[in-house]
Amino acid sequence: MRLSKLLFGAILVAIFALHAEEVIVSGRVVDETRKPVAGIRIAVSSSATPASVEPRSEAISDTSGQFVLRLAPGSYQLSAEGDGFFALRGQALDVSESIEALEVTVSRVRQTSESVNVTATVPPVDVQGTTMTRSVTDRQILEIPYPATRNFRNALRIVPGIVQDQSGNLHFDGAMENQVMYSLNGFNVGNPVTGRLTTRLPVEAIRSLDYSSGRYSPEYGKGSAGTLAIQTASGDDRFRYTLTNFIPGIETQTGLHVGTWSPRFSISGPIRRGRAWFSQTIDAEYNQAVIPDLPAGENRTTRVRGGSMLHGQVNLTPTHLLFVDFLAGYENAPRSGISALDPRSTTVDRGSTQWFWSIKDQIYWHRGFVFETGFAQSRGRGYERPQGDDFYVITPNGRGGNYFVHSTQWSQRDQFLFNIYLPQFEFAGVHHLKLGFDGDLLEFRQQAQRTGYEHYDAKGRMLSRTTFVGNGSLRIRNTELSSYIADAWNIGSQVRLEYGLRQDWDALVDRILISPRIGAAWAPSRWRNTRIATGYAVTYDASNLAMFSRPMDQYGVTTSYGADGTSILGPAVTLFRAPANGRRAPRYHNWTFGVEQQLPARMRLSFSLLRRRGVNGFTYASDSSSITALTPADTAAYFGSGVDAMYVLTNLRRDAYDSVGVTLHQPFGKEYEWMLNYTRSRALSNAVIDISIDQPFQVRDNLGRLSWDAPNRLLSWGYLPTGRRNWALAYLLDMRSGFPFSVQRQTGEIVGGVNSRRFPTNLDLNLHIERRFKLGRRRFAIRAGINNITNSLNATGVNNVLDSPNFLAWYGKEGRHAVFRLRWLNHE
């Protein structure tokens, strides 16, 4: 024991002796409006040596803009570099004693308004990062030719590990869309009911989309697969504006017509120079879609939607900042759901409105102490109205009649938060503690009425009929309380540890959940610009109000018929129940490992591994024991019918996801770049199909590949020079395995394993050319290109009914088509 104490004391003496001749330089990085900037590399080198010489010390600014350098007394040159910012080089820095409040100001690159000759820098590898973070910048959102560039959700498909299914749902590292937390300038904007990303946001309003997965900060929770941080654009002391797609698009598919018109306008600038700024973006969309597989006159549908995003900043004092946001969205989509298998009569008229506003207060005190508090409120309303009151008809060759659900839903969330960044302190390195609290009040209301649906065989004989009983009105609330503490520990300049705990509680599960998280990054001294990182985290999913409210909704009554039309079974009731006790929260264990290396010519090579295992997931499972436990009075209450199936909310769901990815990225020239990624992955679950009252499937074995599983994916994109001034090429290559699907009989019963078949390989190859030019003092950018150059099938639908003569017929082919875009930029 005495020997161990002596050894420990010797280690402490060595550590303090090692730093005895050093002084500490701490400060923060801000932009032109004094807003903190994260991810900026601060490096200092001897004033007597060129900038290319290895720096004496370097650091990366954290989320509050703070950084710490260790230096010997002397004269230095300071540089600051970060993606999306102009490089700051050659700043004189004289150090004779410790400095506690050094402020470094960097200027943003405004791609939407500056000349093509503007040069932005990309810093070397962040050797201090321990989290798997993948980002999309505002430049990439506007430059890369992904399909339907008017929708920012589609921009996320250019991120390795994120795929978009046939319905437009996003899947992050093999997860469901509601297993990610979505934040807008720090506040949760996921749908309060489903947890999905339904927020309407103009693309020009976005500054960056940052997806963190695996071992991510304890500050974020309520999403086992990670967090997507949406940061919006902000104004500065110069007025700027853009106008995009102000001329309607013309399409020639099935006749000359206006296809998509999506005008977007943005303006930003000072309210009071040097003190207050704003950024306002407005977008609208008129879309007329044509379904080539349907007859003329019955093959068109339109959609109108729009949104507005206002972001404001007021500097009450140089260290007291106030931020406000206001977001509004509207959508009217008549005849939604039309397809080759779903004619106009089966569609529904959908519409929605949403409102979101927030206010955040940040105060910066002495030695890096930061206090942040805020409040946000969101409201949403959505409806779906079928085309009539006829029964919904399901046949081997498609659907007919009218859809059976008529509903209106309301949702809301009130959110409170505060965060505290404590002053950095020294103990065997530099520590930066952060702690905070978050509280949410959620509510979901619904009014729904359902008619019913019928199954028919290929000969037109009715096999079953399902009707619905109950008033369909429900209301459910939830309260969520969370807290966390996290420490970032820099041990010299080569090792960084990030660790912490998060606590979550909500009224529906009523358990205190503890999430430990730890990550480490190492920069080997012999391998400059190399990072090796690993991490482990326990994460939880937020309680899904839509799932918990299912037993409050209507219930189905089914009658089955024989070949002669006589009833052979039923009427029988299908019920859903959610026991009030014994609930556990879905828990996931995430492991990550990655290596990142800066290569010559500013190329960056990275390798990543991700393993996620989930237990205690919520799913409705058939429970025959619950049926036998019903009393005669219980069964008499359901129209005197017998109870055929009882689905009980359980914690039986198990999920598994594994992936390995290799990425090569190179920015070069003025503002050009390209990226190449290959990902091998698998996504499995024992609850592939979500059993619900509106799901007309019969599932016996629910184990298989998830419906968005893509084992192989090759992704590449770029914005490249052409050799001619103000001309550029943009491309997207996205090739992946086809998504899996199930085969079913005409009765709705799944045949074989769930998701046992796959769509053909999907290949998107888009190539666009862009030219920027001036008319007088006005600047324009015009773009023309071809999407799906190879004219690949890329089907979004299939006839999966085994009894149909059109079994395995593919539908929804988009085909090769031209795309045009015109943008009006700032005055010179």
Question: What labels would you give this structure?
Answer:
22-stranded antiparallel barrel, 53 strands, 5% helix, 828 residues, globular, 5-stranded mixed beta sheet, Immunoglobulin-like, 2 domains
What structural category arises from helix and sheet content? mainly beta
Total DSSP E strands: 53
Structural shape: globular
CATH top level assignment of the largest domain:
Mainly Beta
Point out poorly predicted stretches.
Answer: 10-20, 49-53, 112-123
- DSSP strand (E) fraction? over 45%
- The biggest beta sheet, please? 22 strands, antiparallel, barrel
Fraction of residues in H or I helices = under 10%
CATH architecture of the largest domain: Beta Barrel
Q: What is the number of helical segments per DSSP (H or I, 4+ residues)?
A: 6
Q: Indicate the radius of gyration in whole angstroms.
A: 29 Å
CATH homologous superfamily heading of the largest domain: TonB-dependent receptor, beta-barrel domain
Count of distinct structural domains: 2
The residue-averaged pLDDT reads 85
CATH topology of the largest domain: Maltoporin, Chain A
Distance between the termini: 74 Å
